[in-house]
Write a structure and sequence with these properties.
It catalyses: a (3S)-3-hydroxyacyl-CoA + NAD(+) = a 3-oxoacyl-CoA + NADH + H(+). Its EC number is 4.2.1.17. This is enoyl-CoA hydratase. InterPro entries: 3-OHacyl-CoA_DH_CS, 3-OHacyl-CoA_DH_NAD-bd, 3HC_DH_C, 6-PGluconate_DH-like_C_sf, ClpP/crotonase-like_dom_sf, Enoyl-CoA_hydra/iso, FA_oxidation_alpha_subunit, FadB. Helix 17 links the parallel strand 14 and strand 15. The protein contains 31 helices and 20 strands. The mean pLDDT is 95. It folds into 3 domains: 280 residues, 2-enoyl-CoA Hydratase, Chain A, domain 1; 187 residues, 3-Layer(aba) Sandwich (Rossmann fold), CATH 3.40.50.720; 178 residues, N-(1-d-carboxylethyl)-l-norvaline Dehydrogenase, domain 2, CATH 1.10.1040. 52% of the residues lie in helices and 13% in strands. The strands form 4 sheets. The chain has an 8-stranded mixed sheet, with helices on both faces. A 7-stranded mixed sheet has the order 1-2-3-4-5-7-10, sandwiched between helices. A 3-stranded mixed sheet has the order 6-8-9.
Length: 716
């Protein structure tokens, strides 16, 4: 053994090949500080050893290297700029030293080679991958750019256009596509990977492959003339501006860095990359996106742990209540291979539910993501019925009937009398108390809430609502079933609106108060979409939700939390609902909706809405974008804080992911708690206090005031 560390080792074969093998102690290989240090030591050992004719790098695991250790980033990026720059420059030099080994090098790629794993491969002279390989530079998804030479080596291998498409989108490639684009040199079957890598390396050692020329290509400036460079980088900049917009600085910085480094050799180009990396590491967007990654890992980890504890196997679903929502829920189980009975009391509703599933599948076929076999198997997994007895063998029943407590209680009671004693019963309700609904059941321990979001097939979140009497085994089984359906479960405790709707309705209330004070709803939507980054402003979102649903839910919230959420007098939402302007449901709400000549859905601000508001709202007034954001976001932030303080949600990270998954909270802001912390708790308290006179939803809790005073964090 030439070198042996905790994450990698080097062994010399009889024919002079030094095999550098990554095999970390955990389940995957990643570039944490220890692994980087060991790579430096192993490289020095190889260079200092006699008889080494070539170097082969491979993984002893089922995947190559998944990237850097992102759990180290939070502490690392909090250091001063100079220290972050010193770290990334030092790490880059480790890759340079490997690239400079005075004999040919090859990397054998199996499974994922992402981020730092891809950069490790790029530092070698040759690359061979097996058919399982996925190769890419996804740093943009963390608000970053490659920092270990990716922006330098990849453009010089495959051209700046292709390289920038790789890096600015963060999409990985399969082995064949990577080969076609020139990022690797061969693709082989998994059983031939090691043998083929050795054979290619021996060809280089014997002078049959020009490995020196390949290495020189990566060291030299980009081969672009002035016109080519201008076209390449202006096109890339325009594409990034159109797709990423202004809120995500990372892809813009990548284009700028590759362009500036085009005329430089490796060391000059790498210096620009290191500097760009540090600039991005210090942005709010990077901190938010790294926070999302870590929060997502936490949510997935808790979900998997709960699912492992499940004692009840769920092999058959029943969905009660068809229509669009019920059809979406039935589809979601069926598409994952779960036999699903869809029951309703009316044939037209069943037809609508099946139509919803067919429509989703047809769109998938049109995009080439679903084949005829998948469509047939999914539809065959859905059994529509009018007969209640058809659900008797279901392991999990999801009630999705009309949002009426009396109707739901009646259906739940009948369900309990029909299914087996160990069947789990859930209610897909967005506002009705789970504890209240549980009173209709003899065995409330096997009952909980299972709140899906519309459209079901697109929205990742399912809120699992624990009632006072819900057993932990029920929660574990429902979490396992949710994961099997391909959704992200977040467990919350029962309260009016649960988590997502409880924090959403103060946001809507802040919006209504703003309109009553003279704001134009189109101006508010523009600020919240273009400046804050929501996919829809509050008026547009209310039109999508439906004024009938919003008005009903506002009533539930008012009854449940009267001290803060009393219904607003002359609420514009209620005015629209009372005048049958329901939003997209009937084509008229804050906006009027229609389909243009090209078949594209369109909307325009409704004069009828403005006319309705006259006499109920103050004279038209312009509000600054800062005030618009403050007046709608402070109520949401305050209620999220109260949910955490009351134990409705277990952690700030889970609250952030719930709003990201369930509402489309702007990812570059990281979630509601990350947003609060990005401005600083002390600053948030000062801002909220400026608007405290507007009512209870603007008044902060004692808990957040104490946290701000003591300098604490929700992510400590």
């Amino acid at each position: 053994m030439m070198y042996e560390g905790k994450s990698l080792s080097v062994n010399m074969t009889d024919d002079g090949i030094a095999e550098l093998v990554f095999d970390a102690q955990g389940s995957v290989n990643k570039f944490d500080k220890q692994t980087v240090a060991e790579l430096a030591e192993a490289t020095a050992t190889i260079v200092g050893s006699d008889g080494v004719k070539g170097v082969l790098v491979r993984s002893a695991k089922s995947t190559f290297i998944v990237g850097a250790d992102i759990t180290e980033f939070t502490e690392l990026f909090a250091m001063p700029d100079g220290e972050v720059l010193a770290w990334v420059a030092k790490t880059s030099q480790v890759f340079n030293h490997f690239e400079d080994i005075p004999v040919p090098t090859i990397v054998a790629i199996n499974g994922f080679a992402l981020g730092g794993g891809c950069e490790m491969a790029l530092a070698a002279d040759l690359r061979v991958a097996d058919t399982t390989a996925r190769i890419g530079l996804p740093e943009v998804k963390l608000g970053l750019m490659p920092g270990f030479g990716g922006t330098v080596r990849l453009p010089r291998l495959i051209g700046s256009d292709n390289a920038l498409e790789w890096m600015t989108t963060g999409r990985d490639r399969d082995a064949q596509k990577a080969l076609n684009e020139g990022a690797i040199d061969a693709v082989v079957s998994p059983d031939k990977l090691h043998q083929s890598a050795r054979k290619m390396l021996l060809s280089a050692i014997n002078g049959e492959l020009d490995w020196q020329g390949r290495r020189e290509q990566k060291m030299a400036p980009l081969k672009l003339n002035t016109n080519e460079a201008m076209m390449s980088f202006s096109t890339a900049a325009a594409m990034v501006a159109a797709q990423a917009g202004k809120h995500y600085p990372a892809p813009h910085k990548m284009v700028e860095t590759v362009q500036k480094a085009a005329a430089s050799a490796r060391d000059g180009a790498l210096k620009l990359e290191n500097e760009g990396f540090v600039i991005l590491a210090k942005t709010d967007a990077c901190q938010a996106q790294v926070g999302i990654f870590l929060a997502d890992q936490l949510v997935k980890g808790k979900g998997k742990k709960l699912a492992k504890a499940a004692t009840k196997a769920v092999n058959q679903h029943a969905v009660l209540g068809a229509g669009i929502m019920g059809g979406g829920i039935a589809y979601q189980g069926a598409v994952k291979g779960v036999h699903t009975v869809m029951k309703d009391i009316a044939q037209p509703a069943l037809d609508l539910g099946l139509s919803e599933a067919s429509k989703i599948l047809s769109k998938g076929m049109a995009r080439g993501k679903v084949d005829a076999k998948k469509m047939a198997s999914t539809l065959n997994n859905i059994v529509p019925t009018l007969d209640m007895n058809a659900i008797k063998d279901a392991d999990l029943v999801i009630e999705a009937v009309v949002e009426n407590p009396k109707v739901k209680a009646s259906v739940l009671k009948e369900t309990e009398q029909t299914v087996a004693k160990d069947a789990i019963i859930c209610s897909n309700t967005s506002t009705i108390s789970i504890n209240s609904l549980a009173q209709s059941l003899e065995h409330p321990e096997r009952f909980c809430g299972m709140h899906f979001f519309n459209p079901v097939h697109k929205m990742p979140l399912v809120e699992i609502i624990r009632g006072e009497k819900t057993s932990e085994s029920t929660i574990a089984s429902v979490v396992a079933a949710t994961l099997k359906m391909g959704k992200a479960p977040i467990v919350v405790n029962d309260c009016p609106g649960f988590l997502v709707n409880r924090v959403l309705f103060p946001y809507f209330a802040g919006f209504s108060k703003l309109l009553l004070d003279g704001a134009d709803f189109t101006a508010v939507d523009k600020v919240m979409e273009k400046v804050f980054g929501w996919p829809m402003g509050p008026a547009y979102l209310l039109d999508v939700v439906g004024m009938d649903t919003a008005d009903h839910a506002a009533g539930v919230m008012s009854d449940g939390i009267p001290e803060r959420m009393q219904k607003i007098e002359n609420d514009p939402v209620t005015l629209l609902y009372s005048n049958q302007r329901l939003g997209q449901k009937n084509g008229k709400g804050f906006y009027n909706y229609w389909v243009d000549k090209r078949g594209k859905p369109s909307k325009t601000p409704a004069d009828e809405a403005y006319d309705l508001f006259k006499g109920h709202v103050a004279a038209s007034k312009d509000f600054s974008k800062e005030e618009v954001i403050a007046r709608v976001m402070i109520p949401m932030a305050n209620e999220a804080i109260r949910c955490l303080e009351e134990g409705i949600v277990a952690s700030a990270a889970e609250a952030d992911m719930a709003l990201l998954y369930g509402l489309g909270f702007p990812p570059f802001r990281g979630g509601i708690f990350r947003y609060i912390e990005s401005m600083g708790l002390e600053n948030f308290v000062k801002l909220a206090d400026q608007y405290a006179q507007l009512g209870p939803i603007y008044q902060i809790s004692d808990g957040v005031r104490e946290m701000a005073a003591s300098g604490k964090s929700y992510f400590a």
